[in-house]
Amino acid sequence: MKRLSTFILLGLCTIGSAQSINEVLRYGLEETQGTARYQAMAGAFGALGGDLSALNSNAAGSAVFNNSFFSATASHYNRNNEAFLGNGFRSSDRNYLDLNQLGGVFVFKSNNGSPWKKIALAVNYDMVQNFDNEIRIGGTTSVGIDNYFLTFANGVPLGPIRVQQGELIEDAYLDIGASLGFADQQAFLGFQSGFIDPEDPDDDNNTQYFSNATYNTVNQEYLQRTSGYNSKFTLNFAGQYQENLYLGATINIHSVLFDRLTTLDEDGYDPSSAIQSSYFDNRLHTEGAGFSFSLGAIAKLSDNIRVGGNYQSPTWYNLTDDFAQRIDTDFADKNPDITFIDFNSVNLFEEYTIRTPSKLTGSLAMIFGKEGLISFDYSYQDMSKAELRPASDPSFTSENQFISEQLGAISTFRLGGEYRIDRVSLRAGYRFESSPYADNPSWGDLEAYSGGFGYSWGPNRIDLAYTRSERDLGVPILDIGLSTGQVNQVNSYVSLGYSVNF
């Protein structure tokens, strides 16, 4: 039977388990997914249109279609993570299949002399992010789990984090979280599991604690396994005005599901240490929805040159979290009932909002008749403007200040080309995305290379694409108090798509 409790002091958890800068990056950064043609050309479609996933780059893109059109795309994903911690190296690899794009556009042409030559209505589903991933970090470090609990516990009175007479330990855990907040709850876990003890155990007003673990270095094995998705359902309306101007607008509705399991095993303490082994596991579940809109335009400057511009509004995500933990040590004087706190004791958080920043995209394309094209997009998004809401919450105010100081502007460059030989189209692309941090050497820039081809017969076309992206990033072992593993993450996608003109 699951035990549930709602955090009244919602903001106090921003330091630890959720609702922090990590969530802003999770939902604010987007992968280049979509149709196989879009992926093969690195998503450089802002001045081109004529592809359903091009609506991600420019809302006017559907008006470029000459006929009604349908497409569907499936992808095989491979994620490889090589992680370093101290002298330790771990590698993990994960593969999965997904339907990442499905949609259609209906084109209505004017025959009555109107300056509006055609109108297009499009409906499209795109995968923004697939969260399926696994990272393993292991090695020797001088910062043990006890530092995590000391960070929260020092300053917390001892009395409220005792188990009261006749109270079950799992009920105490949930009640402390609901009434006092995340920091006190973590202090409770550290104390009851034996990681830490009060300087004065007879004083309920004691606020200073010490560690029961002694070591110079410890051995840690950390696993972070995530799953879920951020998908986007797009409704689009666009039109061609006279011969050379395309205008469009989209409404985007996001659906979010995210699960994260982290496990941390630790040993290698000094032989005289009162603790010789321990584990600490956390599970986070998030779900919700988001909304954004975009406005775009494409202009033909000549038969060969097109330019485009697009404004994507901020995305407002309304999310809810639930969070559970389990912990144990071999400390002799721990509370023996500590194992009753497990993933069946679930903390529920009130609904909150993440507002990711708006994005501006400018595009240029050169069309070489029926032989091929080259396209370039540049996007700018200032991540320091991201916000957690309600902004009136004191802890959200503090975290938003931290976000504005740590994050910076992301510049994204996309370059794509296509060359046609009869029924065959050869494609290639390159994408560069700068780090979202203003100054953080743990997070590097992203580089991606892509290629593919298409084959057409009659109204039908099959497209195949391969994309490889790479980025170095720092992955903290827990969110506060411990070391950070350095991870080289390589994502590879193979996508197959089918489309048909009507």
Summarize the structure in words.
The chain is mainly beta. The chain has a single domain, classed as Beta Barrel (Porin), CATH 2.40.160.60. It is built from six helices and 22 strands. The protein has helices at 21-28, 36-40, 145-153, 169-179, 182-193, 394-406; strands at 3-7, 69-85, 88-109, 116-130, 133-141, 196-198, 209-211, 218-241, 245-267, 277-300, 305-312, 315-329, 345-349, 352-356, 359-368, 372-382, 387-389, 409-421, 424-433, 446-457, 460-476, 484-501. A 14-stranded antiparallel barrel has the order 2-3-4-8-9-10-11-15-16-18-19-20-21-22. A two-stranded antiparallel ribbon has the order 6-7. A hairpin with a 7-residue loop joins strand 21 (460-476) and strand 22. The longest helix is centred in the last third of the chain and has 13 residues, at 394-406. The protein is elongated and about 90 Å long. The relative contact order is 0.20.
Task: Outline the fold blueprint.
Blueprint lengths: L2 E5 L13 H8 L7 H5 L28 E17 L2 E22 L6 E15 L2 E9 L3 H9 L15 H11 L2 H12 L2 E3 L10 E3 L6 E24 L3 E23 L9 E24 L4 E8 L2 E15 L15 E5 L2 E5 L2 E10 L3 E11 L4 E3 L4 H13 L2 E13 L2 E10 L12 E12 L2 E17 L7 E18 L1
Helix pairs in contact: 3-5, 4-5
